[in-house]
Structures are given as structure tokens and as C-alpha cells.
Amino acid sequence: MDEYVDSVIKPTNNSNNKRLKNICIKKPIIIGNNSVRLTEEEKLNNPKIPREHTHRWQIFIMSPTPKGDLDLSFIKKITFKLHDSYQPAVRTIEYQSFIKQSTQNVPGFLVEETGWGEFEVGIKIYFQDGSQEKFLQLYHPLRLHSYYLILNNETGEYDQKPCVQKEGENLTVDNEKNGMVKSFYYDEIVFNEPYADFFTKWLMESNSIMFTNTSDALKSSENNVLYQHPFSEEMELDELERLENGLSKAEEMLNDLRRQYMEKQKALAN
């Protein structure tokens, strides 16, 4: 692979900054948020927190690899678009502004706030100069509450219902830790045939290798449970197996429907 890469990035004319054919680079990321209930003591000690706010929350982008933020150097900045009730509603975090003071296991691309309501956060990821790629638009549904109140039409009262994990979501709820809620999504940023200059400066040296085992991933961040995640090669293989099993079941159901259709067609023909 390295020999092939060396050959394709050598200049063939006056400029070597061309797209690298047949090269595809994937960078794993976690889009997530956590929240905990505010205590009355916190509200009293901090007059800036509005009285109606019930939770302290964070939203962030982080790397699931052992290198953490160092493996996100290809990102120039990230903007988080919050609800319009927050001022300013758009928060911008630049990579160079935090990486020198980066604290282990605490994401640099992070926004912390307090609030009471859930909403969808718009996220834009901008890449370092030379990528010649447009920004990447993502969305994250902010999770605050460890349960939901559903009106019981028979009693007229509200029943507590637990949070339901959405497709692709890794959801953790711990009511013993101030109602802590963590909502993580795994994703990959794909650079298909990146430009040579961007590749050599920002993508080639960074080895985006995830933890081999889920236990290693959890152990790496056990000192900061707010960002503790299970994403690993092992989990990726388990997910692939789950998808393959689902595909096999879908094919079996389709074949069964085809068989039933053919039998009905034969019955009608007779």
C-alpha cells in the first residue's frame, strides 16, 4: 500500500496536486452528547443559570481511536448550531485553538450549555486548507432526559416511559448518576480520491486504527465516564454480522413470498 501511495503522489508534470485515483480514506468519528440533571445547589451557586433549566449538557465530535483528538487534525473547525434561544446560537471550535491545551479523554470539539428542552443540533465540519472539499453537514438529536412523560388517557396522569434507543444510536442511561444520559453515534468521514497535497499533509500520517476490543475502548476512557464509548473493531464486526443476518432473513422472507406467489399463480391457472 505505501509503495503504491508513493508512486501515485509523485509529480507527473508541473503540479502533483491532483486527485489520487483509487485511494479511499475513512476517518471514524463519534457524534455524541451527554447530560446530567442540575442540582439546586448548582443553580443557587451560579446565578447565570436560568431557573427553568433542568440539565447541564455537552455536545461534541470526538475520535474513537487511541490517538483521540490528534487523529482529527484533518479538521479545521466545527460549528454547532444550537436552538435560537441560545446566544450566540452558532458556536465555532477551531482545531488549533484547543489541541495544545487538550486534556486527555475530553473532546476538543465540544460545546457545553444548560437547558430544559431537547432539539436537533446542526453540525458543520470544515476540513483543512487544500482538501478542496465542501463542509460536511451532520445533525444530532440532543438527548437530555432519562425518561419521557406520556399522558395516560384512562387516569389523566402522566406515566414515566424509559428512553428508547434509536437506530444506530448507542444510548446509556444511569439514573444513579444524576440521571446521566449519553447518546453516541458512530460515523465515518470518507475522502474518496483526495488531493495529493491534502493527503500527504493531513491524511497519510494519521493512522485511524480503532481499538481492537470493546473492553479496551471502555478501559481507555474509564477515568471520564462522560465520554466512555464501546466503539471498536470488535463492535464493528458484531454490527456487520447483525446486518448480514438481517439481510439473510430478508432474503428468506422474499424467497418465501415468491414461492407463495408462484403457488397462487399455478392455482389460478388450473
From TrEMBL:
GO annotation (BP), single: DNA repair
Nucleus found in the keyword field: yes
InterPro entries attached to this UniProt entry: YEAST_sf, YEATS, YEATS_dom
Pfam family, one: YEATS
Alphabetic keyword roster: Activator, Chromatin regulator, Coiled coil, Cytoplasm, DNA damage, DNA repair, Nucleus, Transcription, Transcription regulation
Coiled-coil residues: 233-267
GO CC aspect terms: cytoplasm; Swr1 complex
Main location: nucleus
PROSITE patterns: YEATS
Residue span, YEATS domain: 19-205
Location within or outside the cell: Nucleus; Cytoplasm
UniProt comment concerning the protein's domains: The coiled-coil domain is required for assembly into the NuA4 complex.
Subunit: Component of the SWR1 chromatin-remodeling complex and of the NuA4 histone acetyltransferase complex.
Family of the protein in this entry: Belongs to the YAF9 family.
Cited function: Component of the SWR1 complex which mediates the ATP-dependent exchange of histone H2A for an H2A variant leading to transcriptional regulation of selected genes by chromatin remodeling. Component of the NuA4 histone acetyltransferase complex which is involved in transcriptional activation of selected genes principally by acetylation of nucleosomal histones H4 and H2A. The NuA4 complex is also involved in DNA repair. Yaf9 may also be required for viability in conditions in which the structural integrity of the spindle is compromised.
Protein name in the entry: Protein AF-9 homolog
Species whose genome carries this gene: Hanseniaspora guilliermondii
Name of encoding gene: YAF9
